[in-house]
Amino acid sequence: MLKITLDIFSGLPNPTWTLKGEEAQTVLREIQNTRGGVSELDSGTQPLGYRGFIIETEGTTRGLPSIFRVTSSSSLNETKAREILRKLRNNRSRGEIPTLPPPDANQPDNTIPESDPETVNPVSRSQSEGQCPFVATKYDPRPWNQLQVIRRNNCYNYATRRQTNTFAQPGRISGIDIGKPITARRVIRAALADGARSVQQCLSRSDAPLVMALVIAPDPEFNDFHWYRYHQEGVWGHKPGQTRARNVDNSGEVIKNPETCDRGSYTQFAGYFFVPRSMKVQ
Predict the structure, then answer these.
(1) How far apart are alpha carbons 249 and 153 in whole angstroms?
(2) Residue 183 and residue 141: Cα distance in Å, rounded?
(3) Would you say 213 and 227 are in contact if contact means Cβ atoms under 8 Å apart?
(4) b/e string for 55-81 if b means 16 or more Cβ within 10 A?
(5) pTM, whole model, 2 decimals?
(6) Residue 224 confidence (pLDDT)
(7) Are residues 142 and 47 in the same domain?
(8) Is the pLDDT of residue 216 over 80?
(9) Which among 10, 96, 170, 255 could disulfide-bond with 190, CB atoms 3.0 to 4.6 Å apart, if both were Cys?
(10) Segment of 85-89, 91-95, 267-271 carrying the highest mean pLDDT
(11) In sequence order, what DSSP letters do the residues of 162-224 get, joined into one string?
């Protein structure tokens, strides 16, 4: 049996489906014949947008790893990925949004995995000077790139600085379903219900808000959301889906401005938001 994941989204869970019997063996043979496209799960740049297929095998593997990635360097390219995604949307018996692993019972929703709060320092002018105060952490992706964390937390987890191991969705903890299509208005409404605030709404220093930015991939054929978080060094970090956290864009450039960086298909910039200490996600 093969479990196949189309690794394409950042905020939403990726589509996944299974193949069995001769159909699975046929796919394995095709992949074996294009080994140039086979790579380790966390290898490569893994940008925003299409990142290939993740294949998990059970039983006969024909000399292939038990879990690996098939990238666009093989015959499976982005056009093929979009074609498969359309088929999944039209035939839910073959593809479905995966059921994510349950959260770690010892990992509370509001865990902040990076530096201690004492090391988080204000980086803006004071409120009296006409700008809301906020805080930022030093850029440190290591807590997000551990094996037990990387596939269970997404861009919303990273932007809010909360490891829930639930692949957090805006509005889930507040009982709000974003729905389809994914629009800036719907995602913002859900995030505000979780406790996010507009950057025009100043908060007390005791609530120590972080700053995050939202972008949208508006194409009906590829519709998703993605979040960034501001860091002390003046850079923005992010974590595309089930991939590693990083502070570079799709061109490999350090992100100084999420409005102008290379975001691939995430062409709509939707604004900046505060992340108060009291915010909860799931």
Answers:
(1) 19
(2) 28
(3) yes
(4) bbbeeeeeebeeebbbbbebebeeeeb
(5) 0.81
(6) 98
(7) no
(8) yes
(9) 170
(10) 267-271
(11) ---SS---TTTTTT----SS--HHHHHHHHHHHT-EETTS---GGG--EEEEEEEEEETTEEE
Residue 249 lies in a domain: yes
Check: CB of residue 167 under 8 Å from CB of residue 109: no
Region of 252 on the Ramachandran plot (φ > 0 left; ψ -120 to 50 alpha; else beta): left
Residue 66's pLDDT is what? 81
Domain that holds residue 153: 117-275
Q: Is residue 105 part of a domain?
A: no
d(CA 95, CA 99): 12
- CA–CA separation, 178 and 98 (whole Å): 17
Same domain flag for 121 and 231:
yes
Q: Is the pLDDT of residue 99 over 50?
A: no
The predicted-structure confidence for 178-192, as pLDDT tens digits, reads as follows: 999 999 999 999 999
Residue at 108 is within a domain: no
Q: Could you tell me the CA-to-CA distances from 179 to 223, 231, 259 in Å, in that order? A: 11, 31, 25
